[in-house]
Amino acid sequence: MATKWDLPAVELKPPLRVSPFIRFCRWSLLLTGVAYGLRRHHTLQQKETEHRIQLRQKKIIWDEEQRVAKLKSNREEMLYLAKETNSKIPDNFDQIYPK
Questions:
Q1: Distance between CA atoms of 67 and 64, rounded to whole angstroms?
Q2: How confident is the model at residue 57 (pLDDT cuts 50, 70, 90)?
Q3: Residue 16: exposed, middle, or buried by beta-carbon count in 10 A (0-12, 13-18, 19+)?
Q4: Is 7 exposed, middle or buried (CB count within 10 Å of its CB: 0-12, 13-18, 19+)?
Q5: Which of 14, 27, 58, 67 is the most exposed place for a label (fewest CB within 10 A)?
């Protein structure tokens, strides 16, 4: 049963024989591209590894800076709250909240 969407059968020509030189060039370029990609990946992987090591070392410093800033902020906030509420500052305040 034919419908209006059926296309007529098209007779295809037999495939052309590709020159061995062209096949050699195609395969050579493919293998060269794969070798370049592997070399480039290795180079970028080394750079990324070095970058991650540096970030890990810097993160330790950044975390310490954030910790000190938070302690300073907490101390200032506690002094502000004591002033606003007219509370007495405890004698051991400097031990609890160091400068």
A1: 5
A2: very high
A3: exposed
A4: exposed
A5: 14
